[in-house]
User: Fold this.
Amino acid sequence: MVLIMESYNCKVSKRCGGCQLSNLSYEEQLEYKQRQLNSLLGGFSRVNKIIGMENPLRYRNKAQAAFYFDFKRQRTASGIYQSTSKSIVPVDSCLLENENADRIIVTVRRLCDSFKLKPYDIKKGYGFVRHILVRNAVKTGEIMVVIVTATPAFPSKNNFVKALLSAHPEITTVIHNVNNSDINLMLGERSTVLYGKGYIEDELCSLKFRISPSSFYQVNPSQCEVLYNKVIELAGLTGSETVFDSYCGTGTIGLIASKSAKQVLGVEVNRAAVKDAIINAKQNGIKNIYFTCDDAGEYLEYITGEGERFDVVIMDPPRAGSTVKFLKSVVKAEPKRVIYVSCNPVTLKRDLEFLVAHGFRVCEIQGVDMFPFTKHVETVCVLNKV
Ligand code: SAH
Assistant:
């Protein structure tokens, strides 16, 4: 632990605000998260000891930097966008991000100056480059670079990509995305592949997964395997169950579960993620899984209305948690077990209260530290039908 405290020497941590727990040792961070889970969820069941990381730095497989013009130095600068103050804190190397991804961002920034591509100024609505996204697949080594711009015409794009690849031959795909909305750090609808396949592939729990620029993919790959293995263990599948995998993203959990289930049905609202999920099933030779693109609540309400029932429901909603429509339909689907994966214990508590009031009992709660140094906590819990 002493080693970790010494190696965490971020100079901008206060201004950036991304590492809310940077003043604590890693052990203290885990204790803090455990206390939070105990106090919010301890009333439902005993909370297992949170699973931490061996090395809690540089774990992110996704790095993102907003670009702006540094008038003092007369050059492009990049850094971390603060959603609260709408200002950008200059950062060249973030202790949570992959080091090589950070180097790629610095190269793109340098190239923007040499190619005279101006960073976009959100207040003036003027300029070109908004931000850069770098995703790396740790198991396969594939790297995706997404250059997000305000307008579609990319001057000298071929030479730009050539220069980028000559500095970083390890990059496997480069994508140009256009975001003309008011919201920063978002990907727009339009993407053009400038180099490579337009996606990267990674491996998790012995399966291969395709990741497109806008698809959700857990940012901490080693802890993600820990989390998914826990989900499968808690699901207690024997090979005969029908499973509903809701908020399924690119189908990761459902595909891993499909090996020990009779049939899996996945639902996800992001069209690109569903496309990836279908390809993932095909590439891994999995035939007992189906995906549909829809709102989880709408869809489950519809199929349970048609008489569909499931043995196990897996749910992994975003931070806002689930909806009453979805939870009511879960009750109607009469599963013997619900596995709830949550990235926000506050909405988890609210949703568990609903399920407990409608005939379920929380049997096990497990925290997994997916986001060291930040205040975020990931939890998986299992509910059985009483
Ligand atoms: N289970 C996946 C993804 C979890 S993230 C994994 O482990 O990788 C949550 C997912 O819920 C995202 O992919 C998001 O696009 C999706 N989502 C958000 N709101 C939704 C809704 N109303 N209906 C269905 N999916 C939704």
User: Anything to note?
Assistant: The CA atoms of residues 281 and 322 lie 26 Å apart.
